[in-house]
Specification:
This protein is α+β, with helices and mostly antiparallel strands and 178 residues long. It contains 8 helices and 4 strands. The longest helix has 17 residues.
Length: 178
């Protein structure tokens, strides 16, 4: 579904950009996707082929009314329900977030460290990664003692490996090569 999800997300992004409402669309899409993701019963209901389209549309209308999302997000969710794609809303949301982040100049950094960072260290690391990437950076920090020390950071396909393990490997290779 990823190609289809990307197309739906792109169509929604075009609408959001046209209305200068990317953040509002993000919030509405998140509300609906979180509701579905948080309810195995709803997921089973929408995945069940024996449930009529009319029943699914009725449930979607009720959910959208309770969530009070923007009219365009509501129209979009009702549209993908008619196309029998509402079960893929989580994937559409992920694609939409990627597009929104790119449009808004944001990036997610996957950071691996040997020990937990202090808030000051996180702030300094975020500032450094923002300078390197030219984007607003959100950190996702994972602790893995096997890197021994230092930091491995990844933004998109770019990796900065400042781990002690990597530095030792490089020293070892330079000694072996002579």
């Amino acid at each position: 579904m990823s190609i289809v999800a990307r197309r739906y997300a792109q169509a929604l992004m075009n609408l959001a950009a046209r209305d200068n409402a990317v953040e509002a669309f993000t919030a509405g899409l998140d509300a609906m996707a979180d509701t579905l993701a948080g309810s195995p019963e709803l997921q089973a209901f929408f995945a069940e082929p024996k449930v009529t389209l009319a029943a699914k549309e009725s449930v979607v209308r009720e959910l959208l009314a309770k969530l009070a999302v923007s009219p365009l997000v509501s129209t979009f969710v009702r549209f993908i329900t008619r196309k029998r794609r509402v079960i893929g809303l989580e994937e559409i949301r992920r694609e939409f977030h990627e597009l929104a982040d790119a449009r808004m100049g944001r990036a997610n950094a996957e950071v691996t460290v040997a020990a937990a960072l202090t808030p000051e260290q996180e702030a300094a690391l975020r500032k450094r990664l923002q300078a390197l990437s030219g984007k607003e950076v959100r950190l996702r920090v994972q602790v893995h003692p096997d890197i021994l020390g230092g930091v491995v950071a990844r933004i998109g396909s770019t990796v900065w490996d400042g781990s002690l393990r990597n530095q030792l490997t490089q020293i070892h290779q330079s000694i072996v090569k002579g």
